[in-house]
Amino acid sequence: MTENICRFCKSSLSEVFADLGVVSLANSFLKSNMLEKKEPKYPLVAYLCSKCFLVQVPEFERPENIFTNYAYFSSFSNTWLKHSENYVNSVIEEFSFNDKSFVIEIASNDGYLLQYFRDRNIPVLGIEPAANVAKIAQERGIPTLVKFFGVDTAMHMVSRNQKADLVIANNVLAHVPDLNDFVSGMKQVLKEDGIITVEFPHLLNLIRFNQFDTIYHEHFSYFSLLSLERIFSRHGLTIFHVEEIPTHGGSLRVYLKHSDNQRFSIRESVNSIIDKEKKYGLDDILTYSSFANRINCIKEDILKFFHDAKKENKKIVCYGAAAKGNTLLNYCGIGKEFIEYIVDKSPHKQGLFLPGTHIQIMNPSMVFETKPDYLIILPWNLKDEIMQQMNRIKEWNGKFVVFIPKVEIY
């Protein structure tokens, strides 16, 4: 049996944080002609490094096989677009970026964020490994380099005089198997007085609010500020400010500088979040080891909901073909025997089938035709947006359901 090694500090991994069984890759959606073929499945076990407190999933599939042709397009969420626009406005105001600045976004997707810098006449460059997604950005006028990011890509950009005043890495760090290479690349591509902003789901909230469904193979790491500070510090980058933001069930946005950059002083927010993590016990192994029991309790509640609904002959459909939903359904063993279909706003997913469960993805208009009793919102982080969008289900007394942090019916 291969020994699992921490991807940051190279210590041996033996502490199990969460064991979610043997499942398909969460974003490996299927076409109809693939349903009879055997799906690749892998153990989904998150480990805790007892030395650096990084929670991580071993790499079973190379990123090239996951992200080169990707089904996720950020622009289909109004909530996400508004969040991005607000971010752009705030950093322009605080750090005075202008038409002489240069902004790079790593994992820029379809240009959903960089468009707001472009509209303010600020030069941008996206870096996006998924060619199908990058093509959409390029068609919108967002210059996009189709590559995975790391030291090699950073050196390529430096050789072309493409160092940045602002490097953005939103919700990408978790997708990186070689953290040291990625962070080193960020440092190299940053101007001497430039800044980096990184957004990531906060491990503290994953534990507090039972967000086990955010664990999947495409997410290699799960960060606390305690663990991330160690990672950045090793590569000569210093966190000088932190914000708590509501995205993905509670995230952190960290602001980084070169460690020898005296332009930005370290703000109280950094120590405040670290103190908060320590008070919760994120520097104590016992905090992590108790998480598995909480996952089992939620699973029991979810299964009870489905079995009770089936006894009452309730019609159940789901909204949102999100990776977190695939983790939840596969871990709980919920499939077509309970769920008639799933709907998603993205036309890139419609007509496909969920990995593992093989539930078909339809247009949201299908809900209004079939009038289900329950509409389960799998991407619970977009609950408010989806409930507003699908509010007409109240016309036939349809109910919304979310499972995280607990089973709730609206």
Could you explain how this protein is built, in words?
- By secondary structure, the protein is an alpha/beta fold.
- It has a domain at 313-409: 3-Layer(aba) Sandwich (Rossmann fold).
- Helices cover 33% and strands 20% of the residues.
- The mean pLDDT is 93.
- It comes from Candidatus Nitrosotenuis cloacae.
- GO terms for molecular function: methyltransferase activity.
Q: How are the elements arranged and paired?
A:
Blueprint: E1 15-23, E2 42-48, E3 55-56, H1 64-67, H2 78-95, E4 103-106, H3 114-118, E5 124-127, H4 131-139, E6 144-145, H5 151-159, E7 164-170, H6 179-189, E8 190-201, H7 203-208, E9 221-222, H8 225-234, E10 237-245, E11 251-258, H9 268-280, H10 285-289, H11 291-311, E12 316-319, H12 323-332, E13 342-343, E14 361-362, H13 365-370, E15 374-377, H14 383-389, E16 399-402, E17 408-409
Helix pairs in contact: 5-6
